[in-house]
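check these tokens.
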Amino acid sequence: MTKRILSLFASLFFVAALFAQQSNKYQFSLDLNAVHDDKLTVKLVTPVINSDSVIYRFPAIVPGTYKVYNFGRFISEFKAKDKSGKELPVESVDRNSFKIKNAKSLYEITYDVEDTWDTKQKNNFIFEPAGTNIEDSNFVLNNHGFFGYFDELKKNAYEIKVKRPAQMYGATGLSEITTTGNEDTYQVSNYMELVDSPIMYCRPDTTHLNIGGSDILISVYSPNKLVTSRFVADSLDGILRAQSLYLGGTLPVKKYAFIIYLTGNSRGFNSGSYGALEHSYSSMYTLIEMNPSLIAQTIKDVAAHEFFHIVTPLNIHSFEIGEFDYNNPKMSQHLWMYEGLTEYSAHHVQVKYGNMSMETFFGVMSEKISRSQQFDDEMSFTDMSKKCLGETEDQYLNVYQKGALIAMCLDLKLRFLSDGAYGTQELMRDLAKKYGKDKSFVDDSLFSDIVRLTYPEIGTFFNKHVIGAEPLPYEECLGYAGIEYKRRKTIVISDPLGGYGYRVDSLNRVVLYKKDPNAFGKEMGYMEGDVLVSINGKKIKSTTAGDQLKAIEKDLKPGDEMKVKVKRKNSEGKYVNQSLYGRFQPIEKNVKYYMAPLENATPAQLKIRKAWINK
């Protein structure tokens, strides 16, 4: 009897072992200690395959990039084996797909993955936040670059085991993680969630914030230790709290990760770009390492944009996004919302909750009008959106210009029609309630759904300016809030730097650069590279230079004597003290796309302005 029981247990153990070896789950393993030729080897114990042949795919495109990259071109040494280790026939179907025959006996797949950041393939560089990095001190795992899927099995669960160097930590927005020794195991519900969840491995520099009921992880890789996660956290704390208020007081995610890679190469990245890519529970950043004071506003602006993607497309998206086809994608017509409204909100939240001045906000929106003129302003925005992978690809970047301006005008229109009570903030909350993470909308129905939630006039606005190609009514919409708008206007500029700009360098010096020198600046004798020391006896500090210059500008009157001390390089390259003298001269300047508050705004306009930007 005992032998029979032992035999039964042995049989059950054997069956359980077989089940553990191969199930309906993808079981990947990756060893970061085994880099070879700038590549890593991926191993996969496959789900059970019930067909004679099967296609294993890498994506041609991933959400948020709006460009076909063909990640399969970075894959080599692709092999498929049965349980005994015998190789199965493999055929390359296209740049991203491998057809495996005798697939019912398929057990294991192995292949090598090349680093996209450092590739020798010079054409079609992948924007780094969407790519992969393999180096001794840092690994960026954008998972679509390492792990693929079988047709019809994208919704199967994934298990990813990563062996890492002992000193490294993996920063990610994923939550189901277990660690045994130097191996991390990630459990992911499907391929969509895997692609949506980048991981960065490096020596840990992390800070946590708790905002709006969400655990915010900030992980920074700064090779020269110029920027720390604590500095980034302190820089983002105010804007993240403002975004929580903007979204109603709580955030729709329990965990979120800011994953930030800073390159020490002053030339930047091979793609020629820097920036970030949004995800539902994280965002991946590739920026240039520099003095913290110089990078702070860039991080704020980029992070504010990417973080707002937790609203759309996470909670508001069409079937084209919710059921994304990684190899034959269909584009949505609503880039005005996904990217445009997100970009607008990233600046709007700063001015509304005190992180940006009204003048700076108007300057940002004015610059967007100027930049939008570089694109085709007589093109339907919805049409451009649907065709952005093909014939309108060269118009895509207008989503961050005109797309944001569409959102501004929509916001003002809604505030006007609701007497200030309802704007795009409230609209996004209502759409998120109507749809949600697991409920997509029909692409052609969104405009009518918004009209049902708001006013018939909003339908007219969409038909004219988003579906149609009529120019946006800036003067009308800004006028609702008592803001003057002129396409061109002559204004008086009072600038103690005479049209020179300034930056704070790595030594915390206020250094002048040529921006738009005017007659007064030339009379004073300012030169590019001058280190600003004092103006009229007031020492200029790097931490408060902006406020100091505004105060000086406010006090100066035409003809007032100006005494400026600078440090300037001499012929030997040494800095020497230099004194500059002149009499202050305001100048007239012709500006485009002028925006400024009306001095005689009506009570109704002031009410709209208060509701719109809290000013």
About this structure: The chain has 16 helices and 28 strands. The two ends are 86 Å apart (CA to CA).
